[in-house]
């Protein structure tokens, strides 16, 4: 906690996610991982994790079955491009809207 | 200096220092660097950042996207501010690392005078220049390091006619304690070079090529692939200079072996900013790269 006497004088920001809002709304296509091809999920042990390493926005988890935080994923698609086994597909976000029909 | 064991994806720390949902563009090369770089630098750090994309990424009041103390300074005084912060830390007896992290415009054009002074004094700071080859934050204006022939908003028709500055060579002429070039496409290489820089006393300079999707005219998912192409075509070399001795590192060292180089045309054709490049210019650039690399082969093989 900062010193209460200076609280009015300083404009210290609090550290936290979502500085630019829910950046998931920037996305047009979302990454979907095919766990039957994903190397760590298939092997059952930690390996590869390139999507975690190269994600600019820190939204991919380093788990055996990687999870993507769709609230903040900006949908750049680096994970899908760099996946060595092409386990990640970029699927239009509109496909996930309930009740919406696509031509 | 003994080279520490190489970091791999598996033993890289899971601790994160940058929050998701920051203001960086989708597919930003700097975001990758910042995220992985902070893992190497650790918590005992103070950052000095001049106006650049990184200032934007830090966030606006009341939310900060980073968990680090950051001092936002003016363009011209990045290295001078870092010097002052380091002096204060020395006075307090703290081992805190002071890291100046600036863009190519803030380093090669506006901040070079303060940086040159800090280099000459041998200040004990880390200076990182992320080189996205134009003033990207303000809308892609040409900078000192913009390569010849590149389209920017201030060179919109035939591209920049002058040759870009070789900034690492300018820094190397100052005899820094440590100098390294890195690429956003090889974040682990950047991580290991930062770990090495942390152990060295004196000014450590890291020059990082950072692909910028909106500025270079590439699709967002191509950021990493493009940075890799720059290294594999031999246009951007990964090397480090320690005690005045230069050696190629990482992927560039492999390129020196049997792998060979990819033609530069592959790299140029991936980007909209080189659309005005003529065939003669491509041939001239290829000749330039071949000449530099044949020099490397003579020196390092």
Q: How is the largest sheet of chain B built, in terms of strand order?
A: 3-1-4-5-7-6-8-9
Radius of gyration of chain A in whole Å, from Cα?
Answer: 18 Å
Order of helices and strands of chain A: EEHHHE
Termini of chain A, distance in Å? Answer: 55 Å
Q: List low-confidence stretches of chain B.
A: none
CA gyration radius of chain B, whole angstroms: 18 Å
**Count the strands of chain A?**
3
What share of residues are in beta strands of chain A?
Answer: 5-15%
> What form of chain A results from the Cα inertia axes?
flat
Instruction: Quote the beta fraction of chain B.
Output: 5-15%
Structure description:
The complex is a heterodimer of chains A (103) and B (301). Chain A is mostly loops. Chain A contains three helices and three strands. Chain A is 15% helix and 12% strand. The longest helix of chain A has 5 residues, at 39-43. The mean pLDDT of chain A is 87. Chain B has 301 residues and is an alpha/beta fold. Chain B has an eight-stranded mixed β-sheet, sandwiched between helices. The mean pLDDT of chain B is 92. Chain B has helices at residues 29-41, 53-58, 78-92, 104-109, 112-121, 167-172, 187-199, 213-216, 223-232, 250-259, 264-269, 279-300; strands spanning 45-49, 63-64, 70-72, 97-103, 126-131, 178-183, 204-209, 239-242, 245-248. The chains are: A little secondary structure (103), B alpha/beta (301).
Outline of the structure:
The complex is a heterodimer of chains A (103) and B (301). By secondary structure, chain A is low in regular secondary structure.
